[in-house]
Amino acid sequence: MGDTLAWRRKYGVVTPSTNTVVQPEYDNMRPPGVTNHIARMHIPDEPVRSDKDFDELIRRIDVALEAAIDRVVTCRPDHIVLGISAESIWGGGLEPSRKIANRIRERAGDLPITQAADALPAAFKALGIKRKIGLLTPYFPVATKHLNQFFDEFGLEVVRSVHLSCSGPVEIGFTTERELITSLKKIDGDDIEAIVQFGANLPMGQVAAEAERWLFKPVLAVNTVTYWHALRSGGINDKIYGFGKLLWEH
Questions:
Q1: Which CATH class is domain 119-221?
Q2: What is the pLDDT of residues 199-247, one digit of tens each?
Q3: Where are the domains positioned within the chain?
Q4: Buried-most residue among 53, 127, 138, 210 (CB within 10 A)?
Q5: CA distance 19 to 40
Q6: Residues 152, 177 contacting (CB under 8 angstroms)
C-alpha cells in the first residue's frame, strides 16, 4: 500500500539550510498526489564578500551532501531532487554532476535523481534552444568559468550575464522583483534565444513566467526547470499554470 498523500510520487529534496526559496517554489508547482520532503544540508549563515568566500560556500555545501541524503531517504522517497544548482556544475562541464549522482547512489541506492545539470539540457531540447543565451545568477564572478564550461557542453554561448554578487546565502532570497526585472532587461537582446537563471535561492519562478510574456522568449528559472524535469521523468505530465511555457506546454 502506497503513501496516502503521495499516491503518485514522493520527492526527497536536498537543499542548503540557508535556502528559503526551493521549498515554497517546489510546493507551489506540486500537482495533486505528489509530495515534497526537504532535507537540509547544514551550512553556516555567514557573509560572502569575495570570490574566495563564494568558493568556500560551495565547498561547505558539497561536504554536507551525504548527511542530508541519509536523512531524506528515511521517508522512502521515490525520487531524489537536488535543490541547489551551483554544485551540479562547479568544476566545469558535466563531470561534477556525474560525480554527485554517484555519491547520491551510494547512499540512496537506485532511486532516480534530478539535478540542474540533468534538467537544463532537457529543457533546451524541449524548447529548441540551440545557440545563444543570457544568464542571471546571484553568484560572484568566480562562477563565470564554471557556468561557461557547463553551457559549452551543449554548444551554447553566454552572450551577456548579470551576477548579482549577493552578500550571503540567505540574502539571495531577499532579492526583489524589481532587481530581477531590471537584470532581465539588461541581459535581453535580439541576439539571444533565451535567458537562464542559476541559483536556487533566487526567488525567480513567477518573475520568469511573467517575463516570458513581455520578452517573448523562454526565461528559464532553475527551480522551475529542475522540478519540471523531476515531474516529467517521474511520469507526472500535468499542465501546471503560472510557471511559464515549460510546465504548461512540455
A1: alpha beta
A2: 999 999 999 999 999 999 999 999 999 999 999 999 999 999 999 999 9
A3: 9-118+224-249, 119-221
A4: 138
A5: 9
A6: no
